[in-house]
Amino acid sequence: MSKFCTNIINKNEELKQLKSLDEIYNDIYYYLKENYDVNQLQIYLEKDDECETLYTNSDKLNYDHTIRLEYTQNDQINLIFLILTDDENKKNIINENIADIKIILQVFSQSLYNKFLEKSLNEMSLIDSVTGSYNRSYLDNYAPKILSISNREQKKIAFLKVGIDQFKAVIDEFDYTVGDKVLKALSDTLKHTVRTSDIVIKIDGDEFLVILMNIINEDNATMISEKLINNFSERKVVVNERTEQTLMKTICSGISIYPDDASCIDEIIKKADIALYEARNKGRSTSFIFSQKDTNTIDFF
């Protein structure tokens, strides 16, 4: 086996061992830079005539010389590498070695795509299929990190347990398709109301958990909770496209504060659940903040 082939195989094995896509992108770039004087590289994933930028280190939009190398991964997906330069000497070096570069990227592209699929599948396993929000697996995986950040920065986190009022009646009167529409509408409302740094998680049934990072105090959490309630109460869900019949629902919210109310994730969610139970006892569109003094003793776990 030639030294060229041996080097490619060895480098490809190194790429397979890398944990993140960013590491693979950078390693491919630096390999091309070191061996073929490639200074600007862009990588795209093309699917169904849509292009997603995976990597770019180019510092401007247009270059005098562009080499496009395309590698088909399956019937619908292509990986595209653009090698860019404004330097005539660099262009000549690249063109002189283009046959080798094509072979290199053919091999590397498969490892890159496999890692991309792995990342996509991992993300899918953390996403609720109906609403597109994070699911309970996300909470289980990332809750320790969230609490660790709070402890390190000495900032509070609010946990809002949100439930749809009389959600079962929606299923009974209509069907699960309409129920899913209501869940999607709520998920969308929650995401668009809170900050991008906050987290929306579909917990179970009709219930969501909204994690508000770095809140100032209880009043701040209550204000956001009431905003969520008001925004969703104005949201119309189309029940029948033909008749344009719409449905409007309401939600209740239970609030607990970390680390004030508990020191671990299970306890803090339990307190938010108790607060939601109290809110629902008080009626529709109600928010309740957990308090050991004001909360009834409930054991439903």
Explain what this protein looks like in three dimensions.
The structure is a single chain. This protein has 301 residues and is of the alpha+beta class. The chain has two domains: 3-124, Beta-Lactamase, CATH 3.30.450; 136-289, Reverse transcriptase/Diguanylate cyclase domain (Alpha-Beta Plaits), CATH 3.30.70. Helices cover 48% and strands 25% of the residues. The chain has helices at 3-17, 21-36, 88-96, 98-124, 136-153, 167-173, 176-193, 218-233, 265-282; strands at residues 40-47, 50-56, 65-72, 77-85, 156-164, 199-204, 207-215, 237-240, 245-247, 251-258, 287-289. Strands 6-7-5-10-11 form a five-stranded mixed beta sheet, with helices on both faces. A four-stranded antiparallel beta sheet has the order 2-1-4-3. Helix 1 packs parallel to helix 4 and helix 2 runs antiparallel to helix 4 (98-124).
Give keywords.
Alpha-Beta Plaits; four-stranded antiparallel sheet; 9 helices; five-stranded mixed sheet; 11 strands; 2 domains; alpha+beta
What is the topological layout?
Blueprint: H1 3-17, H2 21-36, E1 40-47, E2 50-56, E3 65-72, E4 77-85, H3 88-96, H4 98-124, H5 136-153, E5 156-164, H6 167-173, H7 176-193, E6 199-204, E7 207-215, H8 218-233, E8 237-240, E9 245-247, E10 251-258, H9 265-282, E11 287-289
Parallel strand pairs: 10-11
Antiparallel strand pairs: 1-2, 1-4, 3-4, 5-7, 5-10, 6-7, 8-9
